[in-house]
Specification:
Elements: H1 8-27, E1 43-46, E2 49-52, E3 59-61, H2 66-77, E4 82-86, E5 91-96, E6 101-106, E7 109-115, E8 125-128
Antiparallel strand pairs: 1-2, 2-3, 4-5, 5-6, 6-7, 7-8
C-alpha cells in the first residue's frame, strides 16, 4: 500500500493569497460613488414660494430679498449660471440654466416663479406675480 503525504500547511497560505488577490482584483471593478451634487429636483415649487426637499421644512417664501434667494438657489443647484431679463419697470426674471426654474423679482423682492422640467415634472406652471412672463 502506498502512503501519500499531504501538507495542508503549505496549501493554505496559497489559497488565502489567491482569495486575497481575487478580492483585490474585484475591488477595482467597483465604480466610485459620485459626489452628491445639488439637484434641481430638491426644489419643490408651491403656491407660496419654493420648498426644499429633505430639509426639515425649510422654504423660500415670497417676499424674501433677491440677494438671499439667489444665494440659496445657487447653493441648491450649483454654480451660478443665470440668465436675466428686466422689464424696465422693476420686474426681473432670473433663470438657472438647465433647471427649468425661473424666479421673478419685483424691486428686489421674490414675488413669483415659473417652473418646468426637470424641477417640475409636469408641464410648465407658475405661482405668485409673474409680471406677465408666466
Amino acid at each position: 500500500m502506498r502512503k501519500y503525504k499531504l501538507n495542508y500547511g503549505q496549501t493554505q497560505p496559497a489559497v488565502i493569497r489567491g482569495l486575497a488577490l481575487t478580492v483585490f482584483a474585484l475591488s477595482g471593478c467597483v465604480s466610485p460613488q459620485p459626489a452628491s451634487a445639488p439637484l434641481p429636483q430638491r426644489i419643490i415649487p408651491y403656491s407660496g414660494g419654493l420648498k426644499i426637499a429633505d430639509s426639515g421644512g425649510l422654504e423660500i417664501s415670497f417676499g424674501r430679498t433677491q440677494e438671499g434667494v439667489e444665494k440659496a438657489i445657487d447653493r441648491l443647484v450649483g454654480p451660478r449660471i443665470i440668465d436675466g431679463v428686466d422689464d424696465g419697470a422693476g420686474c426681473e426674471l432670473r433663470s438657472w440654466s438647465g433647471t427649468g426654474l425661473s424666479l421673478i423679482f419685483d424691486k428686489g423682492a421674490f414675488v413669483g416663479w415659473i417652473a418646468g422640467p426637470p424641477t417640475w415634472p409636469a408641464p410648465k406652471r407658475s405661482a405668485g406675480n409673474t409680471c406677465g412672463w408666466g
